[in-house]
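Need tokens for this chain, all 310 residues.
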Amino acid sequence: MNDKNSREYDIIIIGSGPAGYTAGIYASRAGYNTLIISGVLQGGQLMNTTNVENYPGFSSGILGPDLMLNMLQQCKNMGTEVINEEVSNVDLKHTPLTVHINNVKYSAKSIIICTGATPKKLGLPSEDFFSAKGVSYCATCDGAFFKNLELAVIGGGDSAMEEAIFLTKFASRVHVIHRRNEFRASKIMQKRAMLNTKIEFHLNQNIVEIIGDNKVRKILLKNTQTHENQFLDVEGVFIAIGHEPNTQLFKNQIDLDANGYIILKNKTETNIRGVFAAGDVHDHTYRQAITAAGFGCMAAIDVDKFLTKL
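Here are the structure tokens for all 310 residues:
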């Protein structure tokens, strides 16, 4: 430590959640002086979920916040330092790599970025109210909770079609709601959805309200051409209008794709020497807690190999 405004580590992990915590466990267990800067939402998106049934090791499921608190405690048990702060800026172009939180500079030989991605929202107050009470952003995560119910999927791209098709495994009927008169999804994905007899399509419809009591009971739609309103009885709303990777902090320093996701050049390495990434910040395909944890493990092992060569 140089002074009170400068702190040095072997590895700094930016972001928490399954990727960040797993990376922390592996890095600390390998003997590295490791810091996790968790961000505003310590534990990531799973802190806003209820029961998680598809994470291995919990035969009866586990609450999302409980899973994250278990991982956090495991990190601390391994010796990982965790601070609940938001990074203000980073300098990845010079050695050592530096991360700034207000007026304090944290430097490291290597950095793992685990800042994740945030689901795009409709912006309705009722959307937030019914989050985890019938509103979901992940069919793979939550679809099994909606057996034999009528559901709505909001969106018109490939993700919406994939979500709708997946949900037909559980739902009695799936309504796909799209605000335009044609879908953005690829022709093959549209064809697959349209051939599924459980899926009904509603074009030129905007969702303007989600209605219910202790859970979702119906949605209010408004026709974008006639402006007529209609109610649709559903007990689950899956919003599939995309995700926003949390990479604003790294623009102009790390290579990002057209959608803002980090591009990996080799396994978990970015284009910057010593900077690695794990989880939803680069993975726009799977977006599961278990895959994020897997990427966190991979990144920590890759960092170990990188630091060993130094």
